[in-house]
Specification:
It is built from eleven helices and ten strands. With 379 residues, the chain is α/β, with parallel strands linked by helices. The N and C termini lie far apart (61 Å). Bound molecules: pyridoxal-5'-phosphate. Pyridoxal-5'-phosphate (PLP) binds next to helix 3.
Length: 379
């Protein structure tokens, strides 16, 4: 396989463009600081993790053994005993959320899904795909689910199993739905059957490494978790992890065994590089490494918050979040920087590639854009 010189030129231009954009990539939760070049030889085989990672596959060009180590790491992180955990490396957070809702529906086809209005936009779509009834719950200004509104809605549907889609870090504001309060109101409403899924796309790799963070994990009555791999850990392609209690997955596995296979995952062919990349990051950073990475992300978030406030942009953060929310800046900023905007607000997320220097450059550009817009003649 070789390219002619025009095509090579095209690739060079594409890469230059990406390297330029990366200097202003500050509004999305995806870490751009990594070096997986040691893994290049793995591009040379048609590897595929088709099927259940815990079952020997006849597709022998697989990385199931490494995938199991990645799952083990997350099981420990989320306090689920090895023997009770099941998981697999997904194509991203969305697939993990879909998996959680799939398990919930298999258990409780008559269940009602409760999710807050600040939930990721993809969730409404997947609830339609799964075909579960659902109710949108108000979010508080912080972005967290309004527990009183949840309780009122639960009271109206007492006879239906309650399926809670909880956010562990909302997309826009990094807010945490309070799992303890959620379990309390389920009990108070005397609902006997319930299922809690945690969408921990970004914060699933933040909270476990903080000293004082609220607990969210399998010590609570949750059933499944989804985490993105390309967000805090970082990867050159989307990936993630779905984790669930094994006894629930076994029920599904059995029902599919009936048609001749243990088809426990959503996708058939699965990315076999993703587990190798995640394993590489996990092994090279280790728990202590991730702790110091998260510490630094928080320091930079605090720095950015202060700097934005000095410019009068009303910046704030939820506790235990590296998402800095502020007033939508002049349009010129959104055209040059990848600052994510939503209505009147914008955010930056200080994932590991975001440096003090990058924040300074953004602050300078925002300051200039505010000064320039003030100078413009009024009609
Ligand atoms: C990013 C995100 C998702 C979607 O995850 P992907 O990895 O992009 O599929 C879902 N929920 C939340 C809260 C997110 O931030």
């Amino acid at each position: 396989m070789t390219l002619n010189s025009d095509d090579k030129q095209k690739l060079d231009t594409l890469l230059d463009g990406l390297e330029n954009e990366a200097k202003k990539f500050i509004g999305y939760p995806c870490n751009d600081a990594f070096d997986y070049s040691e893994l290049t030889p793995f591009w040379k085989h048609s590897i595929n993790n088709i099927g259940d990672p815990f079952i020997e596959s006849s597709y022998r060009l697989n990385t199931h053994s490494i995938e199991r180590e990645v799952i083990k790491f997350f099981a420990e992180l989320f306090h689920l005993d090895d023997t009770e955990s099941w998981g697999y490396v997904t194509h991203g957070g969305t697939e993990g959320n879909m998996y959680g809702m799939y398990l919930a529906r298999e258990l409780y086809p008559q269940g009602v899904v409760y999710y807050s209005e600040d939930t990721h936009y993809s969730v409404q779509k997947l609830l339609r795909l799964i075909g579960l009834r659902s109710i949108m719950i108000r979010a508080m200004p912080s972005g967290a689910m309004d527990i009183e509104d949840l309780s009122a809605s639960l009271a109206l549907h007492r006879d239906a199993p309650a399926i809670i889609f909880a956010n562990i870090g909302t997309t826009m504001k990094g807010a945490l739905d309070d799992i303890d309060s959620i379990t309390d109101v389920i009990k108070k409403n005397r609902i006997r059957e319930s299922y809690i899924h945690c969408d921990a796309a970004l914060s699933g790799m933040i909270l476990p490494f903080m000293e004082d963070a609220p607990i969210f994990d399998f010590r609570q009555p949750i059933n499944s978790i989804s985490v993105s791999g390309h967000k805090l850990i970082g990867a050159p392609f989307p990936c993630g992890l779905a984790m669930a209690r094994k006894n629930i997955v076994n029920r599904i596995a059995r029902s599919v065994e009936y048609v001749g296979s243990l088809d426990t995952t959503l996708a058939g062919s699965r990315n076999a590089l993703a587990p190798v990349f995640l394993w590489y990051a996990i092994r090279s950073h280790g728990i202590e490494g991730f702790k110091s990475i998260i510490n630094k992300c928080v320091d930079i978030a605090i720095y950015a918050e202060e700097g934005l406030n000095k410019l009068g942009l009303n910046a704030w953060r939820n506790p235990h979040s590296i998402t800095v929310v502020f007033d939508r800046p002049p349009e010129i900023i959104n055209q040059t920087w990848s600052v994510a905007v939503y209505g009147k607000i914008a955010h930056i997320i200080t994932v590991p590639h975001v440096t003090y220097e990058m924040v300074d450059r953004l602050l300078t550009d925002i300051k200039d854009s505010i000064n320039n817009s003030e100078k413009e003649p009024h009609e």
